[in-house]
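User: Sequence recovery, please. Input:
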């Protein structure tokens, strides 16, 4: 059976880093074959690169989370752009807009996402997008960007990480070529919105993630999440779509590899 690909994690979080070897061992035992290790500020970007160098399972991404928008300087963006160009970096992210917690001013968040979309285009890499209470607004930025990314020949302009919107809200992104990433909250009994979203989207538009150490699956709520638990999201997708777990893993892992421009293993059709 194809292994799972966790398209969004933060193993550099001190709570997971304290058990880094254990986290990777359990991920391997659960059959994972890739984990995106996503930066969100300058120290976590540097750490994503440093940790990814220690395991072939880990693929780093670099970017500034919208919460950082009031703090990010031009010099910090220049430094991030240099890291983003490194061959081992698979995406720019996580970037986005967060009008739920609003930890930075809206205008600063909008300028920051635009600057980072420019960097993604310059290095020809996809973006990993955080959107909270901004599901419609963020298309103002991602729509024009995705057209340019596709002109450049990117397989996908990016991934909507932990998408919390409805099927109707997802449709413009899917039409623009974005993948929609499903996290473990799909297992929560009250989360009919995400199950409806999955029911309505084709498997070719889906990837899976944990957002570790956040968002643990049902049965582990209140605990730390880690990449091994991404299987819970895959199982929930299989149930909702009434297909096998192996089909979900095969397709979502192929989608993740295509998104991040990672060669498919020998013998696997793209
Ligand atoms: Zn995240």
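Assistant: Recovered sequence (270 residues):
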């Amino acid at each position: 059976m194809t292994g799972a690909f966790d398209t969004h994690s933060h193993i550099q979080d001190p709570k997971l880093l304290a058990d880094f070897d254990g986290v990777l061992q359990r991920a391997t035992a659960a059959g994972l074959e890739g984990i995106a290790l996503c930066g969100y500020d300058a120290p976590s970007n540097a750490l994503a690169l440093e940790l990814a160098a220690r395991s072939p399972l880990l693929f780093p991404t670099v970017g500034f989370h919208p919460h950082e928008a009031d703090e990010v300087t031009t010099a910090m963006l220049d430094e991030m752009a240099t890291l983003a160009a490194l061959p081992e970096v698979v995406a720019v992210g996580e970037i986005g807009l967060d009008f739920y917690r609003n930890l930075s001013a809206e205008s600063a968040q909008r300028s920051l996402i635009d600057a980072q979309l420019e960097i993604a285009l310059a290095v020809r890499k996809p973006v990993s997008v955080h959107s909270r209470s901004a599901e419609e607004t963020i298309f103002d930025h991602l729509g024009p960007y995705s057209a340019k990314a596709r002109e450049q020949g990117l397989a996908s302009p990016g991934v909507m990480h932990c998408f919390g919107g409805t099927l109707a809200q997802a449709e413009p992104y899917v039409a623009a070529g974005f993948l929609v990433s499903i996290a473990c909250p799909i297992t929560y009994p009250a989360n009919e919105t995400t199950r409806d979203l999955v029911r309505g989207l084709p498997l070719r538009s889906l990837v899976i993630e944990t957002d570790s150490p956040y968002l643990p699956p049902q049965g582990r709520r209140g605990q730390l999440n880690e990449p091994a638990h991404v299987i819970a999201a895959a199982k929930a997708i299989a149930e909702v779509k009434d297909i096998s777990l192996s089909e979900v893993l095969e397709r979502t892992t192929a989608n993740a590899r295509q998104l991040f421009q990672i060669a498919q293993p020998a013998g696997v059709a793209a």
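The chain has ten helices and eight strands.
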